[in-house]
């Protein structure tokens, strides 16, 4: 990755902000490079491009809780609202020991792009707490969630900023967040978060939505390059909610899932892993380690002979070091920001198509939008209706982005940014500056 300082629209060098390191720009630096790549395609809207490079609001909070042993522990929490020009902020909350401000800023910006790419009326936001949730008891996790929610309470709300599950958070965490916000506001506010339990206004189909979106976009991309899903060999990194659901849907469509990697191990079977059995095993053990199949070294995952590769873990996984080893024809980004700009260039040179995260994993936020709408109206749709609406929106968004890519002879990622950034900056320009 280039360590050059970012430039403004006039080409002037800016000093790097305090949260960036010149030798390793991190996720936010990757996002800035992506914006620089799309700027030449924005026409007259390029005068507003600095809007995309500056989060509207970044909150860093101390989250103190009393542990079960009576001691007090402090954790650092974040909530970043990148852009609210098109609507309230929308984005998940992750609990992870490696969460940083740079990461949350980048994730919030990618949410702005993602929401605009599929044309749902949201801005981008993201949150997180730097904590290893495996070290906390259930009661400690609840106290952590409730305290964090109280700390960010002033900037979230059904019409301001709507959190959702992300890495290491789930429906239960969202229920605690909703209850805490509701108690502070004096009324039940189901629309303050999405990804809630069904009994609290959650939406049918939400659990599988992100993985389903990966499958829908992947199927469209595969069709466009003449790749038949039936019989295709698929490798999946990450076997959580996104990776496991995507693996299941590709398996059901007749593909062979030949490799799966999680935080503990990498399994390989050229004849295809038994995905339903693997999902059942992982749901009880918390890992795929110990399931039948050949065990590979971690780095060997990127060398697996496959047709479709799905990185569905964390950001920064496909790099300039491992991109030359990838044998897939199609990469579908289930995770946020899994491919560095340098790796993007290598994959393009090798004629490997990348379906970027901002469209490929947008199924989750799309059904979150459905949940939010249902909460406001107190009228709920069937799972069949939700899946049909999801497929239609994802297909239409992908086809529009594919056409922009063809017209401008750019990658799908740049095309997605062209579509999304144009929508964001059009809203910014029409709204103007106040005061």
Largest sheet: 7 strands, mixed
Strand order of the largest sheet: 9-8-7-6-10-11-12
| Helical/strand content category | alpha/beta
Describe the global form. globular
Distance between the termini: 38 Å
Instruction: Please count the beta strands (DSSP E, at least 2 residues each).
Output: 12
Q: Name the CATH architecture of the largest domain.
A: 3-Layer(aba) Sandwich
Task: List the uncertain runs.
Answer: 1-16
Short account of what is shown:
Helix content is 40%, strand content 16%. By secondary structure, the protein is of the alpha/beta class.
Describe the overall structure.
This protein has 435 residues and is α/β, with parallel strands linked by helices. The chain has 3 domains: 1-54, no CATH class; 55-191, Rossmann fold (3-Layer(aba) Sandwich); 207-360, Rossmann fold (3-Layer(aba) Sandwich), CATH 3.40.50.720. Helix content is 40%, strand content 16%. It has helices at 26-38, 101-117, 138-152, 171-185, 206-224, 241-252, 275-285, 341-349, 357-360, 363-377, 383-408, 412-431; strands at residues 57-66, 72-83, 89-96, 123-130, 161-165, 233-237, 256-261, 266-268, 294-296, 308-311, 330-332, 353-355. It has a 7-stranded mixed β-sheet with strand order 9-8-7-6-10-11-12. Helix 1 crosses helix 12 (412-431). It is globular, with a radius of gyration of 21 Å. Residues 1-16 have low confidence and may be disordered.
């Amino acid at each position: 990755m280039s360590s050059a300082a970012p430039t403004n629209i006039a080409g002037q060098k800016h000093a790097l902000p305090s949260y960036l390191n010149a030798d390793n720009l991190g996720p936010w630096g990757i996002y800035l490079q992506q914006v620089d790549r799309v700027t030449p395609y924005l026409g007259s809207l390029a005068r507003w491009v600095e809007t995309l490079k500056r989060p509207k609001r970044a909150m860093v909070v101390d989250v103190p809780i009393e542990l079960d042993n009576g001691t007090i522990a402090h954790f650092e929490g974040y909530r970043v609202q990148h852009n609210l020009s098109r609507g309230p902020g929308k984005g998940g909350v992750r609990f992870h020991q490696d969460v940083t401000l740079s990461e949350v800023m980048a994730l919030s910006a990618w949410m702005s792009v993602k929401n605009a790419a599929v044309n749902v009326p949201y801005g981008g936001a993201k949150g997180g707490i730097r904590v290893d949730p495996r070290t906390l008891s259930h009661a400690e996790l609840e106290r952590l969630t409730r305290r964090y929610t109280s700390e960010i309470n002033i900037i979230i709300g059904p019409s301001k900023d709507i959190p959702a599950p992300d890495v290491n958070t789930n429906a239960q965490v969202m229920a605690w967040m909703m209850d805490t916000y509701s108690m502070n506001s004096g009324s039940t506010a189901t629309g303050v978060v999405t990804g809630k339990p069904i009994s609290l206004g959650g939406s049918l189909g939400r659990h599988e939505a992100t993985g389903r979106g990966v499958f829908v976009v992947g199927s469209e991309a595969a069709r466009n390059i003449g790749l038949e899903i039936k019989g295709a060999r698929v490798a999946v990194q990450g076997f959580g909610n996104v990776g496991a659901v995507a693996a299941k849907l590709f398996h059901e469509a007749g593909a062979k899932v030949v490799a799966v990697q999680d935080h503990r191990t990498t399994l390989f079977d050229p004849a295809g892993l038994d995905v339903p059995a693997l999902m059942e095993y992982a749901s009880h053990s918390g890992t795929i380690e110990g399931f039948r199949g050949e065990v590979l070294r971690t780095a060997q995952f990127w060398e697996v002979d496959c047709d479709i590769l799905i990185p569905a873990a964390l950001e920064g996984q496909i790099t300039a070091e491992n991109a030359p080893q990838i044998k897939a024809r199609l990469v579908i980004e289930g995770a946020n920001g899994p491919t560095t700009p340098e790796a993007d260039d290598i994959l393009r040179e090798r004629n490997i198509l990348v379906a970027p995260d901002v469209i490929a994993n947008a199924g989750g936020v799309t059904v979150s939008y459905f949940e939010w709408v249902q909460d406001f109206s107190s009228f709920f749709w069937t799972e069949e209706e939700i899946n049909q609406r999801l497929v239609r929106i994802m297909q239409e968004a992908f086809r529009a982005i594919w056409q922009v890519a063809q017209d401008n002879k750019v990658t799908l990622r740049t095309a997605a940014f062209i579509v999304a950034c144009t929508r964001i900056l059009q809203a910014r320009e029409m709204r103007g500056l106040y005061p």
